[in-house]
Design goal:
Layout: E1 4-7, H1 9-13, H2 22-33, E2 37-41, H3 46-55, E3 61-64, E4 69-71, E5 77-78, H4 85-97, E6 103-106, E7 109-112, H5 116-134, H6 142-150, E8 153-154, H7 158-162, E9 168-174, H8 178-188, E10 194-197, E11 203-208, H9 213-223, E12 231-235, H10 241-244, E13 250-253, H11 259-264, E14 267-268, H12 276-299
Helix pairs in contact: 2-12
């Protein structure tokens, strides 16, 4: 029986407009009332993930930064797997050689070693067009974008960041040019101890090797005394691979998932725009209701 439902966000829990639908939010609440744990497992930073969930009235634990840090529903962090500073330095040096913008996620949130003008230009010229190409929405309104931009912590250069005790969780970048992304990835892969994933051919997400969605999910489940056979995981892109390739109770691909993800999952649901997550949850809720009815009949409770 499923006791833990783990869901990716972008392309999975969120529709193409970047929202959790009312149907999906209602089903999450019903799932939780039935006693099934619900956790978001996302590449997003904590505040970005929380904002999207808050907008739908959802309160749950979260695995963020592609597995680098887990948060309870109150925002308390645990199970931190940050990049060693020496390795982060090598990554940033390679980024510089390739002209790649370093989109850095730290304990403090979104962090930049470029100036504010460069940061904004990167999002306008690289990230926004890439999201349009992927049919995904990261910032639903200009207000959300400005909120993110105003919260960025700026450092003069890589050394000034790496000399601080602030843990670096993830270093990402986005190129509209997929060939540039591929060349950058090839050189990053020469560094040992890393996990490299993508949500699309236009982007790279780099964490330390234990900062993966799969590792983080199993660690979380152990702490909750939940067996892997009692976990259902669902996602759509390469950065979900470490989670969906596990021997879990059920692994489900969205209809809009990449071919790689559809191939490794044991089941498939509807697309994110057709409330595929909610449809799956409704089946689980009905299954749990029938189980409880049968249990009460057998044991007379």
């Amino acid at each position: 029986m499923i006791r833990l439902f783990a869901s990716d966000m972008d392309g999975t829990l969120l529709n193409s407009s970047g929202f959790v639908s009312k149907y999906t939010a209602d089903m999450i609440h019903r799932l939780q009332r039935c006693g099934i744990e619900f956790i978001v497992n996302t590449g997003r930073e904590y505040q970005s993930a929380k904002d999207a969930l808050d907008a739908a009235g959802i309160s749950c634990d979260m695995i963020c930064y592609s597995g680098a840090c887990t948060y309870d529903r109150y925002g308390n962090p645990s199970n931190i797997a940050s990049l060693p500073k020496s390795i982060a330095k090598k990554i940033l040096e390679i980024f510089e050689r390739h002209g790649a913008f370093a989109d850095i996620s730290t304990e403090s949130g979104k962090t930049s070693i470029a100036d504010p003008e460069q940061f904004l230009r990167y999002y306008r010229e690289e990230v926004d067009p890439a999201l349009v190409k992927e049919q995904k929405v990261y910032f639903r309104t200009e207000k959300e974008f400005q909120k993110m931009a105003s919260a960025v912590q700026y450092f003069e250069n890589a050394d000034s960041l790496l000399e601080t005790p602030i843990p670096v969780y993830k270093i990402s970048t986005t190129f509209c040019n997929e060939e540039k992304t591929a060349r950058l990835r090839k050189e990053i892969e020469t560094i040992d101890g890393l996990h490299i994933a993508s949500t699309a051919p236009t982007n790279l997400e780099i964490t330390q090797e234990k900062a993966q969605k799969g590792y983080a999910l199993l660690r979380y489940a152990r702490q909750k005394s939940i067996d892997p056979s009692e976990i259902l995981a669902i996602g759509d892109s390469e950065n979900d691979y470490s989670m969906l390739s596990l021997n879990l109770g059920s692994t489900v691909a969205m209809a809009n998932a990449s071919p790689m993800i559809q191939q490794i999952c044991r089941a498939q649901t509807l697309s994110n725009d057709a409330d595929g997550v909610a449809v799956l949850m409704e089946g689980l809720v009905m299954e749990r209701c029938f189980y409880e009815m049968d249990r009460r009949y057998v044991f007379g409770i």
